Amino acid sequence: MMYKIKAPSEKYDRKIGGVQFVNGEAQTDNEWLASWFSGRPGFTVETVTTEEETEPTEDKPRGKRRNDKGNADAAGAKPAAEPAGNDA
């Protein structure tokens, strides 16, 4: 189950207890943390439905994925030597 936590201000951009707030909102799947925030003045906690879970809450760029062009078996393999031929 996911929880959406709203801070007292939309300008709230910081990390608390391992939960990163961006524009005053954060998400966690940690029930204990959600409960802890719900007991703090100004914070509200909502249960997130499956549809809402798929929507990103951060406007932060994600890291680039590494393009793996080879396979693990060929990694580090040297090219095969060409057979010696007659230069006649």
Order of helices and strands: EEEEHEH
Mean pLDDT score: 77
Main CATH class of one domain = Alpha Beta
Q: How many E strands?
A: 5
Q: Which fold does the CATH topology of one domain refer to? A: Ribosomal Protein L9, domain 1
Main β-sheet description: 3 strands, antiparallel
Radius of gyration: 25 Å
The separation of the N and C termini measures 75 Å
The CATH architecture designation of one domain is 3-Layer(aba) Sandwich
Described by the principal axes of the CA atoms, the overall outline is: elongated
Residue windows where pLDDT falls under 50 for at least 5 positions: none
In which order are the strands of the major sheet placed?
Answer: 4-1-5
Total number of helices: 2
Percent helix: 10-25%
Q: Beta-strand percentage?
A: 15-25%
Structural class: alpha+beta
Describe, in plain words, how this protein is organized in 3D.
By secondary structure, this protein is α+β, with helices and mostly antiparallel strands. The chain has a domain at 2-53: Ribosomal Protein L9, domain 1, CATH 3.40.5. The protein has helices at 31-38, 50-53, and strands at residues 2-6, 15-16, 19-20, 25-28, 44-48. It has a three-stranded antiparallel sheet. It has a two-stranded antiparallel sheet with strand order 2-3. The longest helix is centred in the middle third of the chain and has 8 residues, at 31-38. The chain is elongated and about 85 Å long. The model has no long low-confidence stretch (mean pLDDT 77).
